[in-house]
């Protein structure tokens, strides 16, 4: 009985240590660059978050969380015959070492049913959930600055 | 001498003006655009009737004398709509003085969520001269059909987003459809073609 108990304690301990290791490792596994959120006007219920993700090993983005919005989804926009189509996606593949761009022309994070107006100069906390090929998950905390609604796009 | 010069200038000016009237507005024919699509053989958007954010009814002829550039979208659109409106603001600046005659018109495809207040603040964040128009769901559908604009609701969890045509439609100052500008064009490319339209009408 006591033996079983201590065994499970050890298991917990091992798990705890490995989680700690994972957390420490995690910060270096997926790099987030140039994250930003587009500002909204009063009453506007949704906006987009943009960034570049580079994973060190083959991974995928499983989802994003944020206290700024009731619903957070990853969407993909595609252009065909000058028709812009939007689609929510389950996950986004992040190949090892390849920068995956989340911009207005492809994948982006949708913040829907905003809790409050998102104003230029604010920062929006985002938590990215990334899973590597071994099935290990990491949470990445990002503080994305809010840029002006009329922020010009690099393609312009 | 100076009288003669002035008279000459006046005559030359009148000649140019006459030439402009002759070759420009009376010609329905094609213009050669470097980047945009010539739409002069299409009849689109002639009869739409929508409200502006003050509640006043607007039609295409409300903008006579200006060069209307019409774009369809919705304010919850995170990508193409703000990008296209930011491009329009940049175009207006690049056009210089001629930009005063460019009238950017944003028609919402999502009148259920885009209230007049939100629409007004939204377009004016890009340029205070921009106009936003809205109608009922039926009026919106009829207007889109009239412009040959595709749009559809895409369910997304408990909410929805929209897929839609991202073309900007350009009319000359007499309300004749001239040009379609694709979303992929730069502000500089659009400006060149818009100035081509403006040269004739």
UniProtKB/TrEMBL annotation, chain A:
It holds the Pfam family PCuAC. The keyword Cytoplasm does not apply. Residues 1-28 form the signal peptide. Keywords: Signal. The keyword Protease does not apply. InterPro entries: LpqE-like, Lxx211020-like, PCuAC_sf. This is Copper chaperone PCu(A)C. It comes from Pseudomonas kielensis.
Automatic annotation (TrEMBL), chain B:
SUPFAM superfamilies: Thioredoxin-like. Disulfide bonds join 77-81. One of its GO terms (molecular function) is metal ion binding. The keyword Transport does not apply. The keyword Ion transport does not apply. It comes from the Bacteria. InterPro entries: SCO1/SenC, Thioredoxin-like_sf. Keywords: Copper, Disulfide bond, Metal-binding. Cu cation binds at residues 77, 81, 164. Belongs to the SCO1/2 family. This is SCO family protein. It comes from Pseudomonas kielensis.
């Amino acid at each position: 009985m006591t033996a079983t108990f201590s065994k499970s304690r050890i298991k917990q301990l091992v798990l705890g240590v490995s989680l700690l290791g994972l957390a420490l490792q995690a910060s270096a596994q997926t790099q987030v660059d140039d994250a930003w959120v587009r500002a909204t006007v009063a009453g506007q219920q949704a906006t987009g978050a943009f960034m570049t993700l580079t994973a060190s090993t083959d991974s995928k983005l499983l989802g994003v969380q944020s206290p700024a919005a009731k619903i957070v989804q990853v969407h993909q926009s595609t252009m065909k015959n000058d028709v812009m189509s939007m689609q929510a996606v389950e996950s986004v593949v992040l190949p090892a070492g390849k920068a995956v761009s989340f911009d207005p022309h492809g994948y982006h994070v949708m913040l829907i049913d905003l809790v409050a107006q998102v104003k230029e100069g604010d920062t929006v906390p985002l938590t990215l959930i990334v899973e590597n090929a071994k099935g290990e998950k990491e949470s990445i905390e990002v503080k994305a600055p809010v840029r002006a609604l009329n922020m010009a796009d690099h393609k312009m | 001498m100076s009288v003669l010069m002035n008279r000459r200038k006046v005559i030359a000016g009148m000649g140019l003006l006459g030439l402009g009237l002759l070759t420009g507005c009376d010609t329905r024919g094609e213009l050669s655009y470097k980047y945009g699509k010539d739409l002069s053989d299409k009849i689109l958007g002639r009869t739409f009737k929508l409200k502006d954010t003050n509640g006043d009814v607007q039609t295409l002829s409300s903008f006579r004398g200006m060069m209307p550039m019409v774009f369809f979208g919705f304010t919850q659109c995170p990508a193409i709509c703000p990008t296209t409106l930011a491009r329009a603001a940049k175009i207006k600046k690049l056009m210089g003085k001629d930009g005063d005659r460019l009238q950017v018109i944003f028609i919402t495809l999502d009148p259920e969520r885009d209230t007049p207040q939100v629409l007004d603040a939204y377009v004016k964040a890009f340029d205070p001269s921009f106009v936003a128009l809205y109608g009922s769901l039926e009026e919106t559908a009829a207007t889109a059909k009239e412009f040959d604009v595709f749009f559809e609701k895409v369910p997304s969890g408990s909410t929805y987003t929209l897929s839609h045509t991202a073309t900007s439609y350009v009319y000359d100052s007499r309300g004749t459809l001239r040009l379609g500008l694709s979303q992929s064009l730069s502000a500089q490319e659009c400006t060149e073609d818009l100035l081509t339209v403006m040269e004739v009408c």
